[in-house]
Amino acid sequence: MAPMVVGMRVHLDAEKCQGHNRCYALAPELFDVDDYGQAVLIGDGDVPTDLEDKARLAASNCPEFAITISD
Amino acid sequence: MTYTPDAIDPAEPLELADSPNGALTWLREPYDAADYGPVADWATDFDHGDPYFNAHAPEVWKDLRDGGCPVAHSDRYGGMWVPITHETVNQVAYDTENFTSRAVVVSVARPGDEAIPAPIGPVPPISSDPPFHGLARRLLLPPFAPRQIEPWEGEVRTLCRALLDKMGDVTARETVVDAAVQYAQHIPVNVIGRMLGFPEEDEDLFREFVHNTLELINADPEERRAAFQKLDAYLDVQVADHIENPRDDLTSYLLDVEMDGNKLSPEHVRGSIVLLLIAGIDTTWSAIGSSLWHLAQSPDDRQRLQDDPEVMTFAVEEFLRAYAPVTMARLVAKDHDFNGCPMKKDDWVLLPFPAANRDPRFFEDADQFVIDRESNRHAAFGLGIHRCLGSNLARLELRVAIEEFVARFPHFELAGDVSWSIGQIRGPRVLPVKILEVAT
Please, what is the angle between helix B391-408 and helix B312-322, to 10°? Predict the structure, then answer.
């Protein structure tokens, strides 16, 4: 049996988000914003390989440390 | 005339706050800014109202940090603390128990306990504390959310191009323009005026209101109050006009919107209009001006913008980090010790996000402008619950203003004395630049 491939996952802590919208600007494929400008995750948090750099950028530019990455 | 909190009768209704018995503001002690003179020691006599300060702020912060001073102090303004590091700025920003937002602009007088209806404050929600803050803020978030702001891009671009056209014939290596007076200062004032639905010809008046609110901080309280009354009278007319002729703008939105099933009080509507009018103008104007000031001295960064327009996504954030225009303020809510500082109720606390943005313990090469900085958790729009409501609009205006300026004038250099603002909003007010290249 082939080992299960677990790729990068991105997590958003909605309690910490203050709506700076940096993630939405840097990685719109992974983050959307609601009507109040609060970030929402698109999908279930699995990051396609070609978007891993963008996920890292979103995480490392959030002033509130609301985004974390796990590999 | 000196007022003390004791002179304010808590039983007096708020409407009487302007009577001699219930002043809006009070002085801790008789205060004359002239008693102080220029700052000699920034650690113990900090004054952001000293004309030297905004022209040299990054050096002042660096000297304070290098001298091992995380929190400066001043007897000016009746007592003020100034956290300088990212860590201490952060602590104040998140601590809404020990620090209240009911006054956010340091001046010689502070609001009395009963003079302003805390936790609402005079300009909600920036002057509000939890839990009211969350309710008032939620009303204003939707009109400033990205999808509401994005459609303004075309109009901002048209405005910027019109301002550049208005500079007339420009000859490379000869013509000097004032990038602050002829360009930056017009952009946000025009946009917010239109969003509020105020007459376009009143732009000079809006800049006067901003100046009175944010730069006249050392003025006599009576003079300040007279200035605020002029603003009040102006808003009376605009609000009355909107009540009579409702339309699709922010003023009508505020008059119509409901909080907990009720329309907003007239004070709340007026306060929020004041906030939107004042907060959105010289802040963004300063950011645009500082960014152009930087570019005028950095041929490499100008060239990078020409060669690699995509870098703008990162450049905008780096402009915001390195030249963050906004320092906020708080009042100490109760006596407490803060990192060894004995803070007393009603001490002022400056909240210099621009200083936090230059802290080398938080940012690599903090005093260097790195146009493509990849990791940039800057605090230009604040930290915690008071994140700048207009950040999406400010970012749009800054990006488009820079894009259009460098598209027309790829290269330019400083050409004379720059003069900087005074007070909590930092940016150039006079910015002569010689145009070196005009795009064909």
Answer: 110
Reduce the DSSP state of residue B342 to 3 states and report it.
Answer: strand
Domain architecture of chain A: domains with CATH: 9-70 (3.30.70.20)
Q: Give SS3 for A41.
A: strand
Q: What is the pLDDT along chain B (440 residues), one digit of tens a residue?
A: 222 233 333 333 333 333 323 445 677 777 777 888 999 999 999 999 999 999 999 999 999 999 998 999 999 999 999 999 999 999 999 999 999 998 899 988 887 766 555 557 778 898 899 998 999 999 999 999 999 999 999 999 999 999 999 999 999 999 999 999 999 999 999 999 999 999 999 999 999 998 888 888 888 777 888 888 888 899 999 999 999 999 999 999 999 999 889 999 888 898 899 999 888 899 999 999 999 999 999 999 999 999 999 999 999 999 999 999 999 999 999 999 999 999 999 999 999 999 999 999 999 999 999 999 999 999 999 999 999 999 999 999 999 999 999 999 999 999 999 999 999 999 999 999 999 999 98
Ramachandran category for residue B242: left, alpha or beta (phi over 0 → left; psi -120 to 50 → alpha): alpha
ipTM value: 0.93
B138 contact A CB<8A? yes
Tokens of B61: 């912060």
Q: What's the burial of B362, exposed, middle or buried (CB within 10 Å: 0-12/13-18/19+)?
A: middle
What are φ and ψ of residue B193, in 5° steps? Answer: -60, -40
Chain-chain contact of A18 with B387 (C-beta, under 8 angstroms): yes
Q: Per the structure block, which two tokens stand in for B54?
A: 């905004």
Q: Which residues of B touch A65 (CB under 8 A)?
A: 377
B residues 140-199 near A, CB within 8 Å? 141-142, 144-147
Domain boundaries, chain B: 5-437
CATH architecture of the domain B5-437 equals: Orthogonal Bundle (1.10)
Is residue B383 within 8 angstroms of chain A, CB to CB? yes
The partner residue sitting opposite A37, judged by closest CB among B144, B374, B384, is B144
Which pTM does this prediction carry? 0.92
